[in-house]
Specification:
The complex is a heterodimer of chains A (285) and B (123). Chain A has eight helices and five strands; from the N terminus they run H-H-H-H-E-E-E-E-H-E-H-H-H. Chain A is mainly alpha-helical. Chain A folds into two domains: 197 residues, Up-down Bundle (Four Helix Bundle (Hemerythrin (Met), subunit A)); 62 residues, no CATH class. In chain A, strands 2-1-5 form a three-stranded antiparallel beta sheet. Chain A has a two-stranded antiparallel ribbon with strand order 3-4. In chain A, a hairpin with a 4-residue loop joins strand 1 and strand 2. In chain A, helix 2 runs antiparallel to helix 6, helix 2 runs parallel beside helix 8 and helix 4 packs antiparallel against helix 6. With 123 residues, chain B is mostly helical. Chain B has two domains: 85 residues, no CATH class; 37 residues. Chain B is 67% helix and 5% strand. In chain B, strand 1 and strand 2 form a beta hairpin. The longest helix of chain B has 24 residues. Chain B is flat. The termini of chain B are far apart. Classes of the chains: A mainly alpha (285), B mainly alpha (123). Chains A and B meet through helix 1, helix 2, helix 3 and helix 8 of A and strand 2, helix 2, helix 3, helix 4 and helix 5 of B.
Chain lengths: 285, 123
């Protein structure tokens, strides 16, 4: 108590703060970063909840993520979850390097901060690049594409629906000429396949209007949510880069503390935190 | 009281216009906590990807994934963002508003499921 009272006096007499010790024990800047993140979390929550609501609304015809994101660099087989798992690993890793930069800051180790922050920036660029590749594959689509009827229903080819082959669903061999209905059923009746083909036109890739993987809202939410998150990652990389150059030029060494690293660190961990939820709700469930 | 007098208060002045004093407690064990958290997050993620290809029912998988997501979120917020070692009043200020999010989830999904059933019956 005595120590606080002394600080109180010292501050109100000579320093502009004048408020004594913060009740939260952190600086106003860090507190405002926390409250900004709360508001940002509300924005992301709203987006993900809207996604969830439309998914439940159209649950029978919602695309299976394991049939959509199956690409892996230099591999031709379908590898669902592998690439996004790698992206998640990159982001968690860059969160670790960030928290190690903050830790080095507490020890006033300028060189350590520079190294860990530099690695964080590299991790961030890797993640943004991976996301660009994921978008590229989603937008270009599969080699064969799909069929869209004049009613707007998307029928996919069996080769593009690996989750229906074997595995948990126990389907036996699906003939090449069969079609997969929007609600994931195999249509192997030749007459029915011909009828669907007669009222359909080919469709390839995904955009905000059409989506060869199924319901167009899936593509819309994918672009909006991963785009909004990717923009956050990109902003984070830019901020980290600015801080990195500040560290190199000794701005924080002269200031005597590395609180700026803590604030950008909070933002960076938040970006990681949002990805944990995007990963679960877009790819896993 | 006397303890406070003898103990030098660690911290720094922010150096900006407010020049606020910020107390600082550095724990050397911090780094092992960071790596432990990393391994936990990594193992949970690998586990999630692994069980996605098992023959467990979709509903059970969904519950497992959501629980594991919340566990991961706890470790990120508590240890990476250091909220566990901030004052409890700050933690409450940050976490309590999310009750509204739980409410929004319940509301939105109830409505969406209702509309889905409505479609099945009347379309």
């Amino acid at each position: 108590m005595a120590a606080e009272a002394t600080l109180n006096n010292e501050n109100s007499n000579s320093k502009p703060w004048g408020g004594g010790v913060s009740p939260f024990g952190i600086s106003w800047g860090k507190m405002m970063m926390w409250f900004f993140l709360v508001s940002d979390a509300f924005t992301f929550s709203s987006l993900i909840i809207a996604y969830g609501a439309y998914r439940h609304r159209h649950t029978q015809v919602w695309p299976t993520a394991n049939d959509v994101f199956t690409h892996f660099p230099f591999v031709h087989e379908h590898l669902p979850l592998a690439y996004v798992g790698l992206m998640t690993f990159i982001l968690i890793m860059s969160s670790v390097t960030m928290v190690l930069a903050v830790d080095a800051g507490h020890r006033r180790d300028n060189r350590g901060v520079a190294i860990w922050l530099g690695l964080t920036v590299i991790g961030g660029f890797m993640f943004v690049g991976s996301q660009a590749w994921e978008w590229y594959n989603f937008i270009t689509g599969t080699p064969k594409g799909a069929l869209i009827t004049n009613m707007g229903e998307v029928y996919r080819f069996p080769e593009n629906a690996p989750s229906l082959h074997g595995g948990a669903h126990g389907h036996t061999a699906i003939p090449d000429w069969a079609l997969i209905s929007p609600d994931h059923k195999v249509i192997s009746d030749k007459a029915e396949v011909e009828r669907i083909k007669s009222i359909s036109k080919p469709i390839k890739g995904a955009n905000l209007v059409n989506n060869e993987y199924g319901h167009p809202l899936f593509a819309d939410f994918f672009f909006f949510i991963t785009g909004f998150h990717g923009f956050h990652v990109f902003s984070g990389v830019v901020i980290n880069l600015i801080i990195f150059f500040n560290v190199l030029s000794g701005v924080y060494a002269r200031r005597g503390h590395y609180e700026h690293i803590e604030k950008t660190g909070l933002y960076w961990h938040f970006v990681d935190l949002v990805w944990v939820f995007v990963f679960t709700f877009f790819y896993l469930v | 009281m006397s303890e406070h007098h003898n103990h030098e208060m660690h911290g720094y002045y922010t150096g900006d216009i407010h020049n606020q004093f910020v107390p600082e407690h550095y724990d050397p064990k911090n780094r092992s906590v960071i790596w432990k958290t990393f391994w936990i997050l990594l193992f949970i993620t690998i586990g999630e990807v692994a069980i996605a290809f098992t023959s467990l029912s979709k509903e059970l998988l969904m519950v497992i994934f959501i629980v594991l997501t919340i566990v991961k979120a706890y470790f990120i917020v508590a240890f990476f963002m250091h909220l566990k070692h901030e004052k409890l009043s700050l933690a409450y200020c940050i976490l309590l508003p999310f009750i509204l999010i739980v409410y929004l989830i319940a509301m939105s999904l109830t409505e969406a499921n209702y509309l889905n059933v409505w479609d099945l019956i009347f379309k």
